[in-house]
Amino acid sequence: MSIEAEVAALKKVPMLKGVDAAKLKLLAFISERMVFRSGEALCRQGETGDRAFIILEGKADVVVNTPDGEKTVATVGKNDIVGEIAIICDVPRTASVLASDEVHALTVSKDHFFKLMREFPDIALEIMRVLAARLERTTRDLADVQGQLDRAVQPA
């Protein structure tokens, strides 16, 4: 895939939609291109996060370890970014990401990711917006589950 094709793909990533083409070209240039086969892990829960993944093609399952075994909590695909929480928050990976078919991705190292955010505050702002939306959705889902649990344990 050419740099121009990667820039066109990056323009479609919601987190990067407001970023101008020159900055996206820089991002494409400093990113590593990787291909993951079906079943291969992009990253594993508990690992140190050293890079984020921007999916250009394919799909992957986001899987978390639970006391009852692995549970798929989301599916990500073209134009999604994963793995950024571990590098932004400096915490171990919160989930595994497993390719469900062949995945083509750009990987951005932690150092490059932070450099981009420092040099281009508009990228940092878009990242904050996306993460805030994810947090809101997770909080809403957690409240729904808590309500279901509360109703299930109420005496009849």
In short:
Helix content is about 45%, strand content about 30%. It has about 160 residues and is of the alpha+beta class.
Can you walk me through this structure?
It is a single chain. This protein is α+β, with helices and mostly antiparallel strands. Helix content is 43%, strand content 29%. The protein contains five helices and eight strands; from the N terminus they run ααββββββαββαα. The strands form two sheets. The protein has a four-stranded antiparallel β-sheet. The protein has a four-stranded antiparallel β-sheet with strand order 2-7-4-5, with no helix packed on it. Strand 4 and strand 5 form a beta hairpin. The longest helix is centred in the last third of the chain and has 33 residues. The protein is globular, with a radius of gyration of 17 Å.
